């Protein structure tokens, strides 16, 4: 976590019109991090504060030399539960490892079927792999989105295969299909939760 990733979190929260953004702050000597959740109306003021009060590694400048206080995670969503699951909950965990594994599997299959001829080609392939990982892993997910990934990881692996084989159009089509499926899954979960309240 650094200033760039925190900035990206605020940008994503605004793009998605999220109701809340939360940060996890670890303080030296405390066993558990502090979770601070802010409503949409506070986004700009909190962003300005974090950019001014924390250094590039998100360590609180005023406390340097006395105590290590730093922002270690951030997340956004429309419910407190979404933030909790992203920052400290169990439901939101594990999807990054699944995605990374699916990308690694697709990469290994590509290298096995068409091995790079030169070191330059191999480096290029590895760069593509890491770029795809960055695109998928750096984004925050709500609990429902994380569950969708876990239950549809085979579908993700299929589109990573397409991506690794260089078919950009089919990759984009696959992403759109997955996003539509995810949206339907999340809406269904929300309907179920509303019915249970």
Would you summarize the structure shown here?
With 197 residues, this protein is mainly alpha-helical. Helices cover 61% and strands 12% of the residues.
Provide the residue-averaged pLDDT. 85
Distance between the termini: 36 Å
**Low-confidence segments, ≥5 residues, pLDDT <50?**
none
Strand portion: 5-15%
How many structurally independent domains? 2
Structural class: mainly alpha
User: How helical, in percent, are the residues?
Assistant: 55-70%
User: Could you say which overall geometry the principal axes of the C-alpha atoms support?
Assistant: globular
Strand arrangement within the widest β-sheet reads 2-1-3
Q: Give me the count of strands.
A: 3
What count of helical segments does DSSP give? 8
What does this structure look like?
The structure is a single chain. With 197 residues, this protein is mainly alpha-helical. It folds into two domains: 3-87; 95-196, no CATH class. It is built from eight helices and three strands; from the N terminus they run αββαβαααααα. It has a three-stranded antiparallel sheet. Helix 4 runs antiparallel to helix 5 and helix 4 runs parallel beside helix 7. The radius of gyration is 19 Å and the shape is globular. The model has no long low-confidence stretch (mean pLDDT 85).
